[in-house]
Request: fold
Amino acid sequence: MVETLILREAIAVIGSALAAKSDIKTGLIFDEVTYPMILLGALFNAAEFNLMAFLVAGTVFAAGYAMYVGGKIGGGDVKLFTGLALLVPFLGNNVFVVNVFVISGFAAIFYFSVYYLLKYAKKGINFEENKKSTKKAAVLALILAAYMYFGLSSGLFSQKFAAIIGVFGFCAIIFVALEKGIKKEFFLKKIRLEELEEDDIIALEFLDEKTSKGLSLNFKGIVDQKTGQKLKELKQTHVPVYRNLPKFAPFVLLGVVAAIIFPDIFSVVFS
Reply:
């Protein structure tokens, strides 16, 4: 069993490394990387009659797909996390993919908030166009402050936990406060309707009110065939989309390696 676990971990690391490489080079995570991970993970678990692994992977896929439809992560990320959930369902007393997601998410939040804040500051921050997102960030800051106060005063968590969450929470709040301006400066593209690709993320904040209401996207953020047809009916010649978005797969690789080396990292760090 130990040898099988080592093999599973090795495949998870290699697959994540290949995904990170392709994401950096092309902005895509290829099916040739994720499908073998999913297939091998499924075979391992079928051979061991590990039904819980399939339950974990199904939950991960469902949650990831919802985030994908909302335009929060790419389809390749969903398949990558599903493959990881099948390859290494549990490690120690933890759900492996949860540790990977939290570590990679924290690292990405910290890096991208600092990186894009500095880039945006260099270009010149337009506080007026970020007024709405600044109000949203202020509400989040109040919620975080209340949570930290309650947690510390009640002994729910330690000062170490509060310090770590505080740092990453602050980074996230700063990013949210300047989110619209950062998206406009670094990711927003206005393209012709015929250049629209399936899975493009529509920049809803930059759509005019009439078009936004006509599309009736609700929480959906990605372009599909139905969305493209509606845009044609609304006589749109150009569409604002987000492209060249930050690459997440390198942080997933970091999360995979860290979660393997330190499977009980959160029980130690947050105790």
